[in-house]
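quick one
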Amino acid sequence: MKEKAVTLLNESKTARWIALALISTTMFFAYFFVDVVAPLQSMLETDYKWTPEVFGMLGGSEFFLNVFAFFLIFSGVILDKMGIRFTLITAGLTMVIGAGLKFYALTPGFADTGFAAWLGSFITWVPASAKLAFVGFAIFGIGVEMAGITVSKTIVKWFKGKEMALAMGLEMAVARLGVFAVFRLTPIFAENGGPSNSVLWGLVFLCIGFLLFLTYTFMDAKLDKQMGVSKLTTSPEDEFKLSDLKKIFTNPGFLAISALCVLFYSAIFPFQKFATDMLASKLNVDIKSAAAYVSFFPIGAMILTPFIGYFLDVRGKGATMMIYGAVLLTVSHLIFALVPAESFGVVTAILTIVILGTAFSLVPASMWPSLPKIVEDRYLGSAYGAIFWIQNIGLLAVPILIGWALTASNPGVSEQIAAGVEGVKYNYTVPELIFAGFGVLAFILGFVLKFVDKKNGYGLELPNKKK
Ligand SMILES: NCCCC[C@H](N)C(=O)NCC(=O)O
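structure w/ LYPLPQDE:
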């Protein structure tokens, strides 16, 4: 009997770009929420008595459960075992719940409760609002990282052998647009209702994002149904096994790319959280103008990432791109650290941000499409989970390290700001040198990755698109 040929949904260009648009828009809202209070450091210090250490801890709390409770590893396993639809819905709901808690922490409704009084009664240098916000943000962190790995695996499912790096680049571009939007909109929201108003808007956006994930799951179900028709069964060797985790953590390519990932991103996302205040003090401008300059950072990355993705699809050179990215990362942080404030004008600031934005396109655009070349598809979700877990260790520790370095290298400044003394600013030389140090190490790791690639033949320098 002849089997009826089925044209898979992912063979349709329109269908796969619609699928990409749905999941990417949710990532736009997710990234918006990640940095929703990033430009409000000094407002939080004045209104809520959050010191730079407390602010740094908030940045780290996003990753706390992922790292210490191994949620990212679980998320990867859940993704491989339970599939894309279940994991996307779980991720979307988790983000909404965590964001809701963070919003509540900043409201007067919470400040007036006995619970707030109890939370404020221990470790008193961390205000009750911050403690509850940490919990909310840690729960949100589980959701956003789970969403990140699921979206990556979803793109591989729809685009492998086609425009995979371009699609990943576009998804990241849309997510970066969320970061741009946050630096533009959050100060405006906060002007009309304080930081809690900004967080409320972030929460509303996440609810819309959840609905978009839900809509996508219908497309995913249709594709799976078609794949079931054409594949009939999955053989046992194609199924994920827990022992695959060992294979991931002993794969030299995976280890090299993970080390590069944690070093690179440690000089990107934690920087983003401190960048507004750093530029405000270095340029001697108000927070709103500084936030507007920082917004060029994700915008630069947003514009370039899809082009680099396209280049990788047709030409390759993924490992080399990561090395170039590490060089630009180091150069830009050295400029922030070493050019004296007198010679550091708006033009230098924007140019340096553009250099950093270029690094922020080169590395992610080449890193994420490289992973499917290093590990097998059946444990790809777990591999994304594991690399994000390693990365999250850095993203958790580095903001705390930077907050501490900032206070230690600026004795007495934190106390004066909390007391409302006008015109007092931090000097960011030491934190910026730390970021530059990560760049140097990432550069070295880039060469290690190239060596490992040559030895194991992963094909990281080869194009993604099948001719
Ligand atoms: N503060 C956002 C953290 C997202 C981290 C995520 N694990 C990730 O690396 N995503 C890829 C990217 O380049 O944004």
